[in-house]
Design brief:
Shape: globular
Structural class: alpha/beta
Low-confidence stretches: none
Largest sheet: 5 strands, mixed
Strand order of the largest sheet: 5-4-3-8-9
Length: 153
């Protein structure tokens, strides 16, 4: 089942880069930018994460928090977060449960080869845990601008 705007955001719980358990419930009453990315320390994922981090203060002022999710381990996330000074949570989804719940794990094609992988996407979740916006075509270098434009902020 594909999620759409207006759906209740699937519950998630997992560990972040500091091995602290976080869940969707921790963000009740806040808006959340939940973004799914393939791999720590790769060019596109680094550009996207750094863009959101560079604008993290702006997002907090607008009432949003940011959470990144990939199938990498908490240890990998810790190294990635420390290297670039990320101020937000990176969730380890090694079992791909959150990725699958949000439809961010699926079939991909590269050079004619088909394989399963992370479908880069971003979900805007409102204060009542309802999905307000879904981005399936992410501009990694200008993701903040892309979100601001679409959300009319």
């Amino acid at each position: 089942m594909k999620l759409k705007v207006g759906d209740k955001a699937p519950f998630f719980e997992g560990i972040n880069q500091d091995e602290k358990i976080i869940s969707l419930n921790d963000f009740n009453g806040k808006k959340v930018i939940l973004y799914f990315y393939p791999k720590d320390n790769t060019p596109g994922c680094t550009a996207e994460s750094c863009n959101l981090n560079d604008n993290y203060k702006y997002w907090l002022e607008k009432g949003f928090d940011v959470i990144g999710v990939s199938p990498d381990s908490a240890n990998s996330h810790k190294k990635f977060a420390d290297k670039f000074g990320f101020k937000f949570n990176l969730m380890a989804d090694t079992k791909k449960e959150i990725l699958k719940a949000y439809g961010a794990w699926g079939e991909k094609k590269l050079y004619g080869r088909t394989y399963m992988g992370v479908l880069r996407s971003t979900f805007i979740i409102n204060e009542e845990s309802i999905i307000e916006e879904i981005f399936e075509k992410v501009n990694t270098k200008e993701h903040t601008s892309q979100l601001i434009e679409s959300l009319n902020l």
